[in-house]
Specification:
flat; 2 domains; 4-stranded antiparallel β-sheet; Nuclear Transport Factor 2, Chain: A; about 30% strand; about 140 residues
Length: about 140
């Protein structure tokens, strides 16, 4: 095994971003020709029914010739999202009192209904706002 074979897998520089159940790894690696490229790995933790867990990983390889285009599109897309939706996180995983827009539009806009939603635990709210479906119609 030559020097180039070893460097093909070597991490030159690494940073980690932990984000809840996800972890992002940014690794600079060397090609066999001793040039550098970037790998971005998303690792997401999943819990099995028995309490054990496993990780699913997705990896992107980014080479120098693609850096400028990648950076431009990433900046454009992140700017668009922040301009359209702001920096506030709107997600039922992040906010315990979040009601999805589709669900909220089905709830009558009365003070009585609003107080019931505020005082009801999340699981009961879901059951009360769920539309009953009859499978006999299918």
């Amino acid at each position: 095994m030559g020097k180039n074979d070893i460097r093909g897998n070597e991490e030159i520089f690494s940073k980690v971003l932990r984000a809840g159940r996800r972890t992002y790894f940014f690794d600079v690696r060397a090609t066999r020709a001793e040039d550098y490229y970037l790998t971005i790995t998303e690792s997401k933790k999943f819990t099995n029914d028995d309490g054990s867990f496993h990780y699913k990983k997705h990896k992107i390889y980014l080479y120098k010739e693609d850096f400028q285009g990648f950076n431009e599109l990433l900046q454009e897309m992140t700017d668009y999202i922040l301009d359209e939706k702001g920096e506030e996180v709107i997600s039922d995983r992040h906010q315990s009192d979040y009601i999805a827009p589709a669900t909220a539009s089905k709830i009558e806009d009365t003070p009585e209904t609003a107080s019931k939603i505020e005082d009801t635990p999340e699981t009961e709210t879901s059951a009360k706002t769920f539309t009953d479906v009859s499978f006999d119609d299918i």
